[in-house]
Design brief:
DUF4180; single chain; alpha/beta; 122 residues; DUF4180 domain-containing protein; 5 helices
Amino acid sequence: MQTIEMSGTKVLVLSAQGTPVATEADGNDMIGEAFSAGATLVAIPVERLGPDFLRLETRLAGTVFQKFVNYHLRCAIIGDITSQLEDSKALRDFVRETNKGRSIWFLATIGDLEARLARENA
């Protein structure tokens, strides 16, 4: 885990290894880590997502993302979720809608996150 500055935004970048986000409490832990680091955005590699995180019917993603929003933190899921998108129209719709906003993004690479923040803060 490291904290870096990207286009004026302090980003907590989690490593691909570590405890997966498999429960609401795991999401709370990430929020706590972000506050401890003074970050306003958390970049979470898809490898850190528990097996049910992107299954929207579990409501885990929605609950965790809502907590991020409630605490005025942004979140970027970084990595390839192509196979999950192919299996779920609801997830495709969810990703499309969240990517239109400013709070929750799904991006392929950390470079994509940096580019998006640069455009946003230009």
